[in-house]
Amino acid sequence: MKQIIFIITGSWFLISSIGCEPDPPIKTEISTMDITINHFFGSNDFRLDEEYTLPSNEQVKFSRYSYLLSDFYLIDENDFRIALNDQYLYADIRSSKKNLTLTDIPKGPYTGIGFSIGLDSITNHGNPNQYNSDHPLSPINNSLHWSWQGGYIFAAIEGKTLANNESFIFHLAGAQNKVDFELPYNFSKGDDAIHAILNYNIEEVFQNPELYTIEIDGSSTHSVEDSVTLKLFNNMKDVFSVSSIESL
User: Fold this and answer.
1) Is 130 exposed, middle or buried (0-12, 13-18, 19+ CB in 10 A)?
2) Between residues 96 and 172, the one the model is more confident about
3) Residue 216: phi, psi to the nearest 5?
4) Is residue 17 one of the residues assigned to a domain?
5) C-alpha–C-alpha distance, residues 241 and 46, integer Å
6) What is the pLDDT of residue 4?
7) Tell me: the pLDDT tens digits for 205-229?
8) Is 165 helix (H, G, I), strand (E, B) or coil?
9) Number of domains into which the chain is organized
């Protein structure tokens, strides 16, 4: 944009053209929150097909670790829960699926984030064919739907014990067993997108509050209410922590 200035000096008119910078563009708010989940076993990065010693001193190799997350919400400075409805994550370490972009994040200060391993009863027993093939809840995408019983497997943990080369298969399910997390962390959402890094400690699944021993407690479950399912779900209550939440 240019301004034209007229200057009168005696009987002469001077015309001066002064250039100025254009108005800066208005910044558009980006209302998303990227989530990355890093998986650990104790203090070490977790990888499939590597040897690990469980808290029970049993040596194992994991061949599958996958799970479903749902019911995301944020906690604002007034302790209100802001629901981020109908947003899900299918996490699978084998296929490196461990990222999610949450949408419709309002601006403002926050004190924490919440979500669940598993699904509520209505979603769990809804029609799985309603989802597109790339949706986190599509059986084609996640291979976690129990077509023979109805509902989803919330966490699938599989592998072998090294002492006897026997398989363990934990298919954990049941809406009544959904594990809820509420993780305190102060952060603020402005115009920019934000990025959250969460840590998942797999070692905790086999301890705290109860030590899990495959040889004693069992090497498999496909039930929503047996002792194996209940014990492992109970141990999952402290697997998640927040590493950071920052603007991009």
Assistant:
1) exposed
2) 172
3) -95, -45
4) no
5) 15
6) 47
7) 999 999 999 999 999 999 999 999 9
8) coil
9) 1
